[in-house]
């Protein structure tokens, strides 16, 4: 006679609830080997453990129970092997996406920790590595900029490339020519892709300043930055970039927002 285990023992071994095991029984995914007609106790054999382990593993990877049930009903070595290979590939993709997400969150944490240092500098220069951005022109609705619509179009485009979206969002202001100021919204990419809206933020020395407060008062900080550039006889090399360091993801208090405004310059400032 095969070694038998009660449903409670099975649940303890596999770390699942009795409701889960009962659900598998009722849906026909995994029925007990023996059910006591007197007390209704359900018993499972050691040989069923491999099957339960497979079911739980497939569930963790996101396979629906209906598909698992179909697989178990008609499983063959080849079919099981194919499904396992596919799931291993999906798990690897998830691991890579999680690693990217971890890296992005870590970078965001570092930015927040650097806030205390920023308070000592109204303006500073820092070396910036080149970066690929997916940038689209800001959409206008009834003559007014619609940043939500623009961001929606960006996320749709990223989704078409299966690129995870980690909210590393900013804006680009083009001042040349002065009579035709243009604004784009961007998402920073971890890896370059081929797309008409991908642009390169060149490496170089960037003059940075930090705006404290809501976005509708950004113009004041822009004026200070441009005045500083003019008074120090600096030359701007390209566009101005807004990076939202502290935004609504970190706080609901708009007065606590911190936005970095930067522009590449021809020589450093002390």
From TrEMBL:
Keywords: Coiled coil, DNA-binding, Repressor, Transcription, Transcription regulation. Gene3D superfamilies: 1.10.1660.10, Regulatory factor, effector binding domain (3.20.80.10). Residues 4-74 form the HTH merR-type domain. InterPro entries: DNA-bd_dom_put_sf (IPR009061), GyrI-like (IPR029442), MerR-type_HTH_dom (IPR000551), MerR_fam (IPR047057), Reg_factor_effector_dom_sf (IPR011256). It comes from the Bacteria. GO terms for molecular function: DNA binding; DNA-binding transcription factor activity. PROSITE patterns: HTH_MERR_2 (PS50937). Residues 81-108 form a coiled coil. The keyword Cytoplasm does not apply. The keyword NAD does not apply. SUPFAM superfamilies: Probable bacterial effector-binding domain (SSF55136), Putative DNA-binding domain (SSF46955). SMART domains: HTH_MERR. This is DNA-binding transcriptional regulator, MerR family. It comes from Megasphaera paucivorans.
